[in-house]
Amino acid sequence: MDDEKRQQEDWANSRKNRLPSFTEVLSRRTRPPVDLFMFYLFLQREGAEDILDFWLDVQQHENLCRAYFKDVRKSGRTIKEDWPQYWDYARRRGSIYGTVVGLNPDGGGTKRSTTSTGEMLTEQDKRNLAAAGTSEEKGPSGRRSTSPRPPYSGASEGTRVASPNDQYDHPPRSSTPFSLSGRTPTIFNLRRASRAPTIIPRSAAITRMDLIGSAERIFYRYLSPAGNTVNGQDNHEIYLPPALRIHSFPLSSSHEPKTQTEMAMMAQIPDLFHAQKEYCFRAMEQDAFPRFLRSKAFGNLTPISALVRLIAGLIILWIGLAAAFSLIFLDVKPKSKRFFLFIPFTLAVLFLVSHQYELDPILVFLGQSESTPFRTLTIREPYVKKLLVGRAIWVSILVAAFVTALTLLFWAVPGHRL
């Protein structure tokens, strides 16, 4: 107990001098503006939140499978007795649930060569991720959600599930998970937002049909072109490299598997999406997450807000220059009246520099960071707050220097009435 408490204290102390890792963000161990909610909003602005929804949904699917295996063991039966097809599959191919189902890690099975996300997590991270998957947050439909997206955003009630036998043309696929691929980012299409993935309530013991239903929803929502409309509002298909694509899902949650082929397929359900989940994890960690940190740890404005500041700054600068030249060419006396030019120059330079750095020093000094355009939340991450305060001081010095130079320049120019 003392060792765990010491580790927690060491982790808390280390966080004061570094930015959070992607694993810490996913396990909800960070605070605004670099928490999971802000990362979701960042992906949503890029129209790429489906990859995070997919990761969270698969995480919940894996939690559901773990809960099933634990229920079986609590009932006094072994996994080998309850589900021999899965036991044989896991023994031959390896499984991420090896310790849960009682497989010997040093046994005869061939273990997976890829490193699991779970192997990179501490015990506290695993507990936080499990809690994230079973959080009590509820969406408009009354179901619990694993997604950090705000509960008030618009969403359709049902998820369209198309039959795998439907005829369709394969749409052109993007070359990266974060390519917009014809989709419009949310900042330009505020109505486009994917519904948070739902989970099965634990009102009864989990059955294998629940696992099939969970996998079926994931397949038709994220992996099957048949379940998505090209360039449509409800298109949630994510990009996967050809080696990881799953082209069919022969099982159905409406009836139990009976044939040997279906039974063999059902044995793969617990591990079915793990490789795809690992790919999405690494894609987000290497592509989107660094950009997210640059956006939120070194700035506090959203793109729309920064653009509005650019437009306002140019307009106010034009007004300030027009007033300055008017005072010069009308030779207004006394000359000290020109010092009032610092007012439009200050506003103009502040807005323009804020746009350039995507950082508003006034908001930083008030401890605020934008979550959505013109909506702020309190900065609670210590190291991020220290970084932002340092950059805000630098921006303030730049603004003061430019304003002083402009004001003195137009004050020193001799007047000449035209």
How would you concisely characterize the structure shown here?
The protein is mainly alpha-helical. Helix content is 50%, strand content 2%. The longest helix has 31 residues, at 382-412.
Description of the structure:
- This protein has 418 residues and is an all-alpha fold.
- Helices cover 50% and strands 2% of the residues.
- The protein has a two-stranded antiparallel sheet.
- A hairpin with a 2-residue loop joins strand 1 and strand 2.
- The chain is elongated, with a radius of gyration of 28 Å.
- The termini are far apart.
- About 16% of the residues have low confidence.
Beta fraction: under 5%
Mean of residue pLDDT?
78
- The unreliable regions are 106-116, 132-145, 150-174, 186-200
Helix content: 40-55%
The first-to-last residue Cα distance is: 84 Å
Content-based structural category:
mainly alpha
H-E order: HHHHHHHHHHHHHHEEH
Q: In angstroms, what is the radius of gyration?
A: 28 Å
Can you count the beta strands?
A: 2
Assign an overall shape.
elongated
Which strands sit side by side, in order, in the main sheet? Answer: 1-2
| Tally of helical runs | 15
Report on the biggest sheet. 2 strands, antiparallel
Topology:
Blueprint: H1 2-14, H2 22-26, H3 36-45, H4 50-74, H5 79-82, H6 84-93, H7 98-101, H8 123-133, H9 208-223, H10 260-267, H11 274-297, H12 303-329, H13 342-357, H14 361-365, E1 368-372, E2 375-378, H15 382-412
Antiparallel strand pairs: 1-2
Helix pairs in contact: 4-9, 4-11, 6-10, 12-13, 13-15
